[in-house]
Write a structure and sequence with these properties.
about 160 residues; mainly alpha; Four Helix Bundle (Hemerythrin (Met), subunit A)
């Protein structure tokens, strides 16, 4: 029943893994050295793509499992919050702690989409960049746990 949904979510997980692997050198470099303007723009793009991938997973869940669409102007925030709430069709996807961490990436993604790249500030981006791999690890564990619950339901 959920086979296609599971495949779509696993595809997004692989895309995010590929994103982080592709920029591994840059992500490692900025752990010890401040990036230049071009590197800051690249890092901002990585953060943007990362959250887009996360949101793609949540949209798949919302549409394919919950059979729901959000029409609110603040649908991005609402979508993230919904992933912390179980319903009659599925279990919780995210813990409140992970939701809080991801909300910071959502806020950055909103800023990035609505500003010019020369406004990017490394001091503000640095905590997001340096914690990116850990946040993804925690998030992916929670998503994979959710996927296991879908696979059990299909048995």
């Amino acid at each position: 029943m959920h086979e296609i949904t599971i495949k779509k979510i696993k595809f997004e997980i692989n895309q995010i893994n590929t994103l982080l692997e592709s920029y591994q050198d840059l992500l490692s470099k900025v752990e010890n050295e401040a990036p230049d303007l071009i590197e800051i723009a690249a890092l901002a793009s990585i953060l943007h793509s990362f959250y887009n991938g996360i949101e793609n997973v949540f949209q798949i869940i919302l549409k394919s499992i919950d059979n729901q669409i959000i029409n609110a102007s603040s649908w991005h925030k609402e979508l993230l919050k919904l992933m912390t709430v179980p319903n009659t069709k599925r279990s919780v996807v995210l813990s409140l702690q992970t939701m809080y961490l991801l909300s910071q990436y959502l806020s950055f993604r909103h800023f990035y989409r609505h500003s010019y790249s020369f406004y990017l500030n490394w001091k503000e981006m640095k905590p997001l960049v340096l914690s990116l791999r850990n946040v993804w690890e925690d998030t992916s564990v929670e998503i994979k746990t959710f996927l296991k619950s879908l696979e059990i339901d299909d048995s």
